[in-house]
Amino acid sequence: MSDFSTLKSELETKLAELLERADGIEEQLSDPGEKDWEENAIAKEGDETLAAVGNVTETEIRDIRLALRRIETGEYGICTVCQKPIAKARMAAVPWATTCVNCA
């Protein structure tokens, strides 16, 4: 098994950042807003976009957790479909990739 300690540390840092962002988004979306409906409409105008960012963030969190689990189990860098090694360039670009380019 390769030594992925540096990558693991980087993924853990990214995960912590994403978890903090997700908490902030959740807090913003759960804010009841202003009593005045007009003021509230203006304040809540970006909630749909914020929710979409939250969904992307949650997906990244899930993918990074999976990558960390695969590092621990020795499956990291191996395609889940064909069981061949995933190209280093792909892993550098998308460290949480679970499939090679051919199987993606």
Describe this entry's structure for a reader.
This protein is mainly α and 104 residues long. The chain has a domain at 5-76. Helices cover 63% and strands 0% of the residues. The protein has 4 helices and no strands. α1 (5-30) runs antiparallel to α3. The two termini are 23 Å apart. The model has no long low-confidence stretch (mean pLDDT 90).
Structural class comes to mainly alpha
The number of E-state strands comes to 0
Task: Measure the end-to-end span.
Answer: 23 Å
Sequence of secondary-structure elements: HHHH
- Largest sheet, if any? none
Rg from Cα: 19 Å
**Helix tally?**
4
Fraction of residues in helix: 55-70%
Mean pLDDT: 90
Q: Regions with pLDDT < 50 over 5+ consecutive residues? A: none
Note the beta-strand portion.
under 5%
The outline comes out as: elongated
How would you summarize what this structure contains?
This protein is mainly α.
